[in-house]
Amino acid sequence: MNLRQRAWLPPDGDNRLVRLQDSLARACGTDPMTLVPPFLALEAEGGPVGPLRTGEWTWSADGPFGLGAFDSRGSVGLFVFDLEAVDAEVAFPPSPGWTWTRGRVATLVLTAPRQGRNYRLWSWEGLSGWRSDHPRG
């Protein structure tokens, strides 16, 4: 499986999403060291407009697991956490209600085998800065 996904990442040094994914992974019985870092899968081209904030938890049997993401225009995507099996009995914390005004936009490149999770190679391409204010023209 090969995946290319436009993504937003928190600024360097802000590891709140990683710490949250690590605690969820341990609760689900997954080794956090084997996971792709959490990221915001962007629905539209470009980055968010205005401050970016987390929404409510979202999961389904056939879709990704994560937190909704919103900017000044509304929904911009989903903060994806790399957990394959999300147990309904795991006690999820309430939505953290985090807000960002800085971050990075990139493309996630993920290569994985067709069967199983023996290995996965991932990298970020086209990493650039992002601020919540509109560009000055």
Tell me what the structure shows.
With 137 residues, the chain is mostly beta strands. The chain has one domain. The protein contains 1 helix and 8 strands; from the N terminus they run E-H-E-E-E-E-E-E-E. It has an 8-stranded antiparallel sheet with strand order 6-3-4-5-2-1-7-8, with no helix packed on it. The longest helix is centred in the first third of the chain and has 12 residues. The N and C termini lie far apart (41 Å). The mean pLDDT is 83.
Name its key features.
single chain; about 140 residues; mainly beta; eight-stranded antiparallel beta sheet; 8 strands; globular
How would you summarize the topology of this molecule?
Blueprint: E1 2-9, H1 16-27, E2 39-42, E3 52-58, E4 65-71, E5 74-81, E6 99-100, E7 102-111, E8 121-131
| Tally of individual helices | 1
Mean pLDDT: 83
E-strand count: 8
User: Residue ranges: pLDDT <50 for 5 or more in a row?
Assistant: none
Overall shape: globular
Radius of gyration over alpha carbons? 15 Å
Strand content: 35-45%
Strand order of the largest sheet: 6-3-4-5-2-1-7-8
Based on helices, strands and strand pairing, what is the structural class? Answer: mainly beta
- Total number of domains: 1
Terminal residue distance: 41 Å
- How would a crystallographer describe the biggest sheet? 8 strands, antiparallel
Helix content bin = under 10%
The SSE string, one letter per element, is EHEEEEEEE
